[in-house]
Amino acid sequence: MAFYRSSHRMSSQIGDLLNQIAKKGRIGLHKNIAITWIRYQTNNPEPGCGRGTSWSGEKLVYPASVVKLIYAVAAEVWQQNKYVLETPELRRALHDMICDSSNDATSLVVDLLSGTTSGPSMIEERWEAWQKQRQVVNEWLATLNWEEVKLINCCQKTWSDGPYGREKEFYKDGNTNRNAMTTKFTARILEAVMTNGIASPPACKRLRALLERSLDYNDRKSNPDNQIDGFIGEGLPRGTKIWSKAGWMSQVRNDAAWLSLPNSNPMLLIVFTQGRQYSNDEKLLPELAKALFQIHLEDN
After folding, report:
1. Can you tell me the distance from the alpha carbon of 272 to that of 278, in angstroms, rounded to the nearest whole number?
2. What is the pLDDT of residue 49?
């Protein structure tokens, strides 16, 4: 059972919209996109109260930097349980990982979460222990007992040039051990952050502060990696509040966003795409977001 109430009307709206967008030269779009779209009927929703739908919402996709959302939530849980110390350096790393999507900061966060470090190949016993330690985030996710966690893999660092040494070996042959997430899972964990449904309310408040984005043109112009242009935020009307985490590399363009206008009910939209054509398509996510947010506003 989904964590939201399924809406046949929203499902039809997603299908119709994809049909329209695919006609604009986007060959194979239906097979290369996954969407979870949830709408809320109150401006202060609780976990699980939304109405929604998904298109390929259970399809495993490489999340790119969207996985950093998971590591940020895990870091708050670890601190709450006294598994790691809260330090200024950890806070700096969490800020840079989410706000600037820094891969270097992510490396430190994953090291702290797992008690491992990158480096050269290891001898057999130490190597087995290292690999087991790097599964701790997946093990924590399993304790949530969410249906959406099944088959999710969040154990790898993120890279600019790629992994080396033991990190490369940890990807396994054919990169079969790379990170993998679904839009349904991503939607549930972002909803939990936005509704105080995971860790503690103070922890969720800190996470929301990191995820909040500016749609201001000057702010975006001064930061080419603003996580708005080319993503969901670009398609939103002025005045919209957005909390999001984007991910992009040569084969995927992904975004996870919570959206609302002042005095209106929020909407949650997760879009993952795969394939070089869609990785390079800077208009697809804004176009989808604009259309779906307009539907949301008209029905409010």
Report:
1. 10
2. 96
pLDDT at 123 (0 to 100): 93
| Residue 2 pLDDT grade (very low, low, confident, very high; cuts 50, 70, 90) | confident
Confidence (pTM): 0.97
Q: Which residues of 271-283 are buried (b: 16+ CB within 10 A; e: fewer)?
A: bbbbbebbbebee
Number of CB atoms found within 10 A of residue 197's CB:
17
CA separation for the pair 182, 214 (Å, rounded): 26
Tell me the CATH number at 98.
3.40.710.10
Residue-wise pLDDT tens digits, 241-269: 999 999 999 999 999 999 999 988 999 99
Q: Which domain holds residue 183?
A: 5-299
Domain count, the chain: 1
The contacts of residue 138 (CB under 8 Å, 6+ apart) are 152, 153, 154, 155
Residue 267: what pLDDT? 98
The one-letter code for the residue type at 50 is G
Per the CB < 8 A criterion, the answer to whether 156 and 170 are in contact is yes
Q: What is the rounded CA–CA span in Å between residue 234 and residue 196? A: 27
Mean pLDDT for 269-298 is: 97
Q: What confidence score (pLDDT) does residue 194 get?
A: 98
Return the pLDDT at 263: 85
Residue 300 has pLDDT above 90, yes or no: no
